[in-house]
Amino acid sequence: MGLHLANRNQTAQAQRFAATILTVAPEDDMAAQLFSHCAMAQGDFTAARLQVETTLQNQQRMGFDTTFMRQELARIKAATAAAHLDTTNY
Length: 90
Known about the structure:
This protein has five helices and no strands. By secondary structure, the protein is an all-alpha fold. The protein is globular and about 35 Å long.
């Protein structure tokens, strides 16, 4: 459902859908990636980064593989820097 909404450029609705999934399953990397994609499409790089960081922390706490979320976090940081929105010192 979320991908269907995102593919139809209904990113706000897709982001809300992903946020709902993450409320129930905070470790869900696919929902976090959908949230991230939609947030960045709307120019909200901070929300994308914060959600992926939260999902990453939940995965670490639960002992899950964090490779996918680490890659997503790197993608967000690169996109943020490319958009000249990086105001932190990484």
